[in-house]
Amino acid sequence: MTSVASSSPDDAVRARDRLDRATASLDPPLAVVDLDALDANAGDLVRRAAGKPIRVASKSVRNRDVLRRVLARPGFSGVLAYALPEALWLASGDDPVSTDVVVGYPSADRGALRRLATDATGAARVTLMVDSVAHLDLIDSVVPPGQRAELRICLDVDASLRAAGGRVHVGVRRSPVHSPAEAVALAHAVASRPGFRLVGVMVYEAQIAGVQDAPANRRVRGLAVRRMQAVSGRELAGRRAAVVDAVSSVADLEFVNGGGTGSVERTAAEGAVTEVAAGSGLYNPVLFDGYRAFTGRPAAFFAAPVTRLPAPGTVTVAGGGWIASGPPGADRLPVPTYPAGLRWLPTEGVGEVQTPLRGAAAARLAVGDRVWFRHAKAGEVCEHVDELHALAGDELTGTMRTYRGEGRSFG
């Protein structure tokens, strides 16, 4: 597969023409999902998982039609949701998106906990995430165990690399549960309390799955990242196996979840892991261009119209400031992709109401033309539009409503 970063000038012209022709009757801003690229990326994720099922990370998709399309493919099973209200929505009704939804983060939403606890069907389809007894206490305070359905529980175990007696921390700040002893202690706490059933363990290695190991034009950083990931991967493989072995002595686990788009092969190869999570690799946003293990096809684009020609070699588009979450930096900004050769101005970046762009391609743009961008992250593009226009071949085949378009907001 060919990425935008490595495509030829002719490829870029053809890609732009394809998007422009297909959406000629529509007014930007608008977003497109390329179903051919999406399907190719899904197939590549399955290949990389080498037989282990992939649980789709919904925060990287945020579109029920896309979730259904992916889950209909062999190799995908279940959803990793990012909020309990979202999980209830995806698992509800006679035609749910999935009957197996794990909430990837602990929830303090009392209303949603109450709805789950008083809904036997929902309680059978949704698994809650906990990393402390405080989460169990909160649930019990909302609906006591004798007044609710039994709730499915997954333990969130910290995957970060710790060194120098804890003074060095490489990874994200998630669960306080790090060692096998801490995990088994929490497992006993869950198992000993009525109204809870321990069914899973999740260990997400963000420092491996979510960090580019071959960033463009940053060779030294790439070498440092790869060394860190090698050390962290070896440490985690042994610790994850020990955690699973310890927790399995307390409860019969249905699943052990790990990994993400950037670490599918590495995580799937571990015997202790029964499934991997992935979502960003379906849309393949900019932050996933710099990995050695795979090359995805960009599948999600958004367009902004040219509204000004303020100076030779410069155009201004309306809006464009669809900035990604995370540490502030240039890598969180959307990338002007088609026509090739445009760049935003350091003094303005991408703006709320206008974005000046400079480059040779500006001379060939007129007021009313459009510039196509790729978002830095995956699902966040759906927070800006009500629908994704579905592109198959050279034609639009319909629209896919985003969470926002369905009137849903989950934070």
Could you please describe the fold and organization of this structure?
- There is one protein chain.
- The protein has 411 residues and is α/β, with parallel strands linked by helices.
- The protein is built from twelve helices and 19 strands.
- It has helices at residues 9-22, 35-49, 64-71, 84-91, 110-117, 120-125, 133-142, 180-191, 206-209, 219-248, 264-268, 280-283; strands at 30-34, 54-57, 76-81, 101-103, 126-130, 151-156, 161-163, 168-170, 196-203, 255-258, 275-278, 300-311, 314-318, 335-338, 343-344, 354-358, 370-374, 387-392, 395-401.
- The strands form three sheets. Strands 1, 12, 13, 14, 15, 16, 17, 18 and 19 form a nine-stranded mixed β-sheet that branches.
- β10 (255-258), α11 and β11 form a beta-alpha-beta unit.
- The longest helix is centred in the middle third of the chain and has 30 residues, at 219-248.
- The model has no long low-confidence stretch (mean pLDDT 93).
Give a concise summary.
With 411 residues, the protein is an alpha/beta fold. The protein is 30% helix and 24% strand. The strands form three sheets. Strands 1, 12, 13, 14, 15, 16, 17, 18 and 19 form a nine-stranded mixed sheet that branches. The chain has an eight-stranded parallel barrel with strand order 2-3-4-5-6-9-10-11, surrounded by six helices. It has a two-stranded antiparallel ribbon with strand order 7-8.
Any descriptors?
single chain; 411 residues; eight-stranded parallel beta barrel; 12 helices
Mean pLDDT, nearest integer? 93
Distance between the termini: 34 Å
Largest sheet: 9 strands, mixed
Number of helices: 12
Low-pLDDT segments: none
Compute the gyration radius: what is it? 22 Å
Instruction: Report strand %.
Output: 15-25%
Number of strands: 19
Structural class: alpha/beta
Helix content: 25-40%
